[in-house]
Write a structure and sequence with these properties.
The complex is a heterodimer.
Chain A (H helix, E strand, L loop, with lengths): L9 H12 L3 H22 L7 H18 L6 H19 L10 H7 L5 H19 L3 H11 L5 H8 L3 H23 L2 H14 L5 H9 L1 H20 L3 H11 L5 H8 L4 H13 L3 E4 L9 E2 L7 E2 L9 E9 L2 E6 L5 E6 L7 E4 L10 E7 L5 E9 L10 H7 L4 E4 L3 E5 L6 E6 L3 E8 L2 E6 L4 E5 L3 E2 L2
Antiparallel strand pairs in A: 1-4, 2-3, 4-9, 5-8, 6-9, 7-8, 10-13, 10-16, 11-12, 13-14, 14-15
Helix pairs in contact in A: 1-2, 2-3, 2-4, 3-4, 6-9, 7-9, 8-9, 9-11, 10-12, 10-14, 11-12, 12-13, 12-15, 13-15
Chain B lengths: L4 H25 E3 L4 E5 L6 E6 L3 E7 L5 E5 L5 E5 L5
Antiparallel strand pairs in B: 1-4, 2-3, 4-5, 5-6
The chains are: A alpha+beta, B alpha+beta.
Chain lengths: 471, 88
Amino acid sequence: MLLPSTSSSQDDDTRLVERLRAGDELAFEAIVARHRPRLLAFARRILRDRPDTAEDVVQEALMRAHLALRRDDREILLRPWLFKLTRNCALDEISRVRADTVPLDAPAAAGALIDRDGPAQLHERRANVRGMLEGIAVLPEEQRHALLRREVDGASHADIASELGITGAASRSLVSRARENLTKRNEALDARCDDVQGDLLRAYRTGRRASAHVYRHLAGCKQCRAYRGQLRAMREALHALHPGGMLLLGAVASKLGLAGKGTIAGLLTKTPATIGAVAALSVAAVGSTFVIGAGEPSPATIHSPVLPGGMVAKGTPLPPQTAVVVGAGAVPASVRLTCPASHRVADLLPPDTAGVTAVYDASTHPGISQTATIALSGTRGRHIGVAILCRVPGPDGSLTPTSTARAAAALPLVVACAERDYLRAAPEGDVLGSVSSGEPLHVLDRRPGWRRVKTQFGRTGWLPASDLCGG
Amino acid sequence: MILPPHRAVVAIVAAAVVAVAAPDAADARVRTTCAPRTKVLSTPGGLVVGFLARGAQVLVLKHTRNDYWTEVRAVHSLVGWIHSQDLC
């Protein structure tokens, strides 16, 4: 018979595991003899209020270890693995026994029954313990092991490091992160559901992921999980009815007055009728349009020369004097989108579906028209969500931000008269671009029969004077 | 009008050359977009007036000096500028 060695070297453990796997049951007895005392102490620390169950827990862990070691030939670091098994068995035992019950035959029962605290305090204390155990249970495995070994078993960082095959510094970091995660989890659980639901709604409206704080709260809050389920159901209803649903969600929510968290909280309690109402509105949206006005979250990241700074990020408020109009249609179709009063059509935004051609038709003059007609072509029958950017023109008729317009304000203003004209690098020179009828232009220079102009997009070039009106 | 024989031959040959060459010349201006989604602008750096799916046929109208931009006529008579690299 192999006598248990006092050496705790990894080599010995490895040899014992090899012998066990070769069929030598005595090797397992040696493993038990070597590790059981420390496993037992470890289990007793976890099961502080029920030390009598520690032996059962260790027995269960060793049985699992025996089965697992015989089952396959995976390389294993025996000592940390046994601690991990024991810890898991102990946590299973804790979660198996309901924390709010006390067995009457248990020695602690009498103490519990005459506890100086009242039932409310006792309940709160137990709830706290249960919450902490649940928090520990959801920690990443290495963090959980390091925290329990450090806090429960009092192990040194050197021991933990050797068990996990990491450095002492990494062990300290693991314990620190575990504590931090537990603290954040507790904070998240204490957060008000109103706030969390407001964050969820914002995340769904803007298409962004909610914060980690929200997800931590969701892990322990049934009410908020149900709320998230309702939001998902609404999104799926929209999406099933209309592929542009994602784009339309923000607009639909706006139309329904769901901007405030209180509103949607109240509205969503009426499900599924509410979801049906939203879905019905979505159906109406195919062939109808929605306006997302200045200050409301942008439904997408938009790059455009008419926007201050050249862009607006998804979810951030649309700048003043700007709007996005959203609509939808089935291919082949023409979708008419009308900008709000005093706004003019600016950019066409990318359709929400790939493989589709979407273009302004000949009646749409960007910068001048208030209504855009968008012709869709592609796979017949597909529903396409489309949107346009609208802007209020400045005093000079330009759609570009005020700063640019102001800089050019001192220059004489003319308007392109020809249907379409080419902007040239020099009179009769190379083509640089084009201008369209009605486009405002600032005159920079004059030559017989030619004018050097600056367009609202900041490009300069020469045009025939005969093609310009005004000034 | 009756042409002298040698002029008639020249005219027939010329007509034949034009008939053969004209489609080629026209075809050279018809190009296809290769980008997954080609953005059409009102002018280089201007407003977006359309999006063309891959494989859309366009008629090339003009190029800028550096050939970075190409003016095209696309479906629904849309005229605008695209990045030349979006063409096959």
